[in-house]
Amino acid sequence: MVPLNEISNDDIDISNFRVVDQDGLANVVVIVEWEYGWKNDEYPGTVITSGFQTEIGTPDPDNFIAIESLTKEILCEWIKEIEYPRLQEIEDWVNRNFPMQHKLQSSTVRFLEEFA
Predict the structure, then answer these.
(1) Contact 92, 48 (CB under 8 A)
(2) d(CA 116, CA 97)
(3) What are the phi and psi torsion angles at 19 (to 5°)?
(4) Which of 58, 64, 73 is nearest to 12 (CA)?
(5) Residue 46 in contact with residue 105, Cβ under 8 Å?
(6) Which of 19, 77, 96, 100 could anchor a disulfide with 27, C-beta 3.0 to 4.6 Å?
(7) How high is the pLDDT of residue 70?
(8) Sign of CA dihedral 83, 66, 28, 72
(9) Which positions ≥6 away from 17 have C-beta within 8 Å?
(10) Nearest one of 40, 35, 38 to 16, comparing CA atoms
(11) Residue ranges of the chain whose pLDDT lies below 50
(12) How many angstroms separate the CA atoms of 75 and 96, rounded?
């Protein structure tokens, strides 16, 4: 597995995040929905995308970041810190599936109806 500090934010696509008002704070991020694009140098151009929903812990009022100040980089750092163990757990499965995914992504889809 790529070390945590080497996971590129470019490989993370944040689709949305969910907020609530909590403990006197407004727009507290509670869940981030995102995808991670796995890559393998043995299969250039092939990407396996995994979708995640990450629950963000209770905020520290002294270090709270207002929604207006949130950036992709901040959200990525939160989710990488929380999800790195899970990414490690599924990495073996992903790597075993790269040969098949490469075939899928480098082939043409055809349907029997085309030849009927």
Answers:
(1) no
(2) 33
(3) -125, 155
(4) 73
(5) yes
(6) 19
(7) 96
(8) negative
(9) 29, 31, 32, 33, 75
(10) 35
(11) none
(12) 29
